[in-house]
Amino acid sequence: MNSRRALATALVIFLVLTCAAQPADDLQQTTDRLASSVLLGPSMTTLRELTDGFGGRLTGSPAYQAAAEWAAAKFGSFGIHSVRLESFEIPNGWQRRWAHGEMVAPLVRPLHLESVGWTPSTPEGGIQGEVVVIDDFSADHIKAQAAQINGHVVLLDTSKLFAQGVWKALPVLSASYAYLKDAGALGILQPDREKDNVLNAHDALWGAKMSPLPAFQLGLEDSKLIRRLLDARQSVSVKLEAQNKTSGATAVNNVIAEIRGTEHPEEWILIGAHLDSWDFGTGAQDNGAGAAMVLEAARAIAALGQPPRRSIRFALWGGEEQGLLGSFAYTQAHATELEKCVAVLNTDNGAGHPKGWKVEGRKDLMEAMAPISNTLLKALSGDDLSMEVTYDTDHGPFLLKGVPAFDLEVDMSHYMEIHHKSSDTFDKVDALNFKADAAVVAVTAYAIAEDARPIAPHLDHAAVGEILKKAGLDEFLKSVGVWNP
Fold it and tell me: Which one, 296, 404, 448, 483, has least CB within 10 Å?
């Protein structure tokens, strides 16, 4: 028996002894069986099949589609008969091919770079030009600097912009790409903020929209060298070339499965995670782990042979990395059903040790969740219930509709070391933490679905707006067209 399995077995034994020491009601006994099934289940094998089997699962790519079909078959293999692929459309399909860059003056040396996602290929032979720096991204400033920008490659200095906060910075940065094209820029260099020339994958615009210019993510140290040369009043020229594959409007599938409830099947809980990933690594922590947790929760709940009162839906979303596109599309397509959605549980923060749940600014959810945290989850996780409000993953579109929304909170101490990087691979996942996370998701969903009463009411539009405003998210969400105050 390996050490990880031994630890998992020890935790199962602890759960059993806890039940023996304290008289447990039927729900406790059922959720302890459920947790035991998850802790000793095949979730690591499932995760490895997903990550090593399909690699990076860029939204709309053949790898993503193959992974979606695999996931649907997985749900079916658990004996779940209601499984379907639900299609939505993104404006543009995009796949990375290759990128190359070098400084040609005053030094000749290669640059560490890749294409920013959803940016076009360069013309054949690439682009070559002198580098200019801008740190003011307003339309007026860029227009005023058009003579200096025209025919040049623009290096973005975003330090002042992001000092205002990421949600204020992103709309301004995205809008600047069009202004720079109008000013005659040849292309864009966007410095990464990771040391050692490590690159983080990301896209230029929200919503799988194509950038108007070729844009490149540039290693931090390379960008600092260019800045030092420019500060010394030396002219810096670069040559940049990239080839990417674009495909116009593209259909993408969400994967949806459902276990019908026994007493109120028309009411439902949703457990979700995004199936897509960036393509530098194989998307193990972001978000293969979350997708595998959803699959494992489905397997274990189906294996119980004891469905809860309400239905449980399981969702693997596409397009999260491009702006929560799959989950947003689901809330639009199922708008008339959302009043019957009792709660949404999302997992997309990696597979660190479980800490509890984010309750997205709702004190009533915190109070309603506390009894579950203090009893059913006590042997599995911490009892933290965070009031932090986020719109960085797929609970967000449901939050906008007033649905009680939870986001799994885990220890993220080392998460950013691999997030969106080539190092996001299967070997970075701690098996015991991952299995504990999956057990927390499964037990929480079952408990909410089994409760005779809904965990909390839906909020009206005004109440949601107050939460967003307090969190500083309202203007950003308005700018990307998903929120109308």
Answer: 483
39: Cα separation from own chain's centroid: 24
Residue 369 lies in a domain: yes
77 with 194, same domain: the answer is no
Per-residue pLDDT of 457-484, as tens digits, reads: 999 999 999 999 999 999 999 999 999 9
Range of the domain at 389: 3-91+249-479
261 in the same domain as 174: no
Q: CA-CA distance, 435 to 231, in Å (whole number)?
A: 52
**If you ran DSSP here, which 8-state letter would residue 419 be given?**
T
Hey, CA dihedral for 283, 287, 293, 294, is it positive or negative?
negative
Count of H helices and E strands in the chain? 16, 16
Strand residue runs (E) in 295-389: 310-317, 341-346, 354-358, 384-386
Task: Return the closest-CA partner of residue 129 out of 111, 109, 110, 155.
Answer: 155
pTM recorded for the entire structure: 0.94
Say how many residues make up the chain. Answer: 485
Does any domain span residue 485? no
**Residues 9-47: pLDDT tens digits?**
445 444 444 443 333 489 999 999 999 999 999 999 999
Of 202, 218, 246, the residue at which a domain comes to its end is 246
Task: Fill in the DSSP letter of residue 459.
Answer: P
Within-domain flag for 405: yes
88 vs 162: CA distance, rounded Å = 32
Element (H, E) at 74: helix 62-77
Collect the ranges in the chain with pLDDT lower than 70.
1-24
Q: How far apart are CA 434 and CA 439, in angstroms?
A: 9
Candidates 110, 58, 19, 88; CA nearest to 315 is 88
Q: Are residues 276 and 423 in the same domain?
A: yes
Cis peptide leading into residue 287 (ω within 30°): yes
Are residues 22 and 144 both part of a single domain? Answer: no
The answer on 80 and 100 residing in a single domain is no
Pairing label, strands 127-134, 405-410: unpaired
Distance CA 323, CA 330 (A): 13
| Residue 148 sits in the same domain as residue 10 | no
Q: Is residue 306 part of a domain?
A: yes
Q: How many domains does the chain have?
A: 2
Confidence at residue 51, expressed as pLDDT on a 0 to 100 scale: 98
pLDDT of residue 375: 95
Residues 6+ apart with CB under 8 A from 466: none
